[in-house]
Design a protein that fits this description.
Length: 148
């Protein structure tokens, strides 16, 4: 299974916010530190804001913070929302499925079960667990380390 670039950016963004909990962080510092484009980042920020995971503040002194505690943000939840309903394989797509084996194929069920197990394992991981006592990560995610 391969996650999308958007999900990868979302997790980096959330880890950056969790590592800097006492202040508003900016899109430009996250982009620089996490090596992502500001355009992609803006889309992810908007999505996480709509989901109630991020709190955003516009304006000259704007930025973002986590809208909930890092302990209450489950990585499985983030993956499900950001990945959306992207089909894992062609036979999962109703409209674009051209596979002639779909009606008799047992692999579809096995892949569906595997995807559910994947998300379930991520449900056990919180954002806090990713950063708690992870001193190397916390050092990387500090603005000084990011060249600021």
């Amino acid at each position: 299974m391969r996650i999308t670039k958007r999900t990868n950016i979302a997790v980096r963004l959330l880890m950056f916010c969790a590592a800097n909990p006492d202040r508003l962080v900016t899109k430009s510092e996250i982009a620089k530190c996490c090596n992502v484009s500001e355009n992609h980042l803006a889309q992810v920020i908007n999505q996480l804001g709509q989901l109630g995971i991020l709190h955003t503040q516009r304006g000259r002194n704007g930025g973002m913070t986590l809208a909930r505690s890092a302990a209450s943000i489950r990585i499985g939840e983030v993956f499900r929302h950001v990945e959306g309903d992207l089909p894992m394989v062609e036979c999962f797509a109703d409209a674009d499925n051209t596979c002639p084996l779909t009606d008799a194929c047992r692999l579809k069920v096995a892949l569906s079960d595997a995807a559910q197990a994947f998300y379930a394992s991520l449900d056990d991981i919180t954002l806090e667990a990713l950063i708690c006592d992870n001193f190397d990560l916390l050092q990387i995610l500090q603005p000084v380390s990011c060249g600021r």
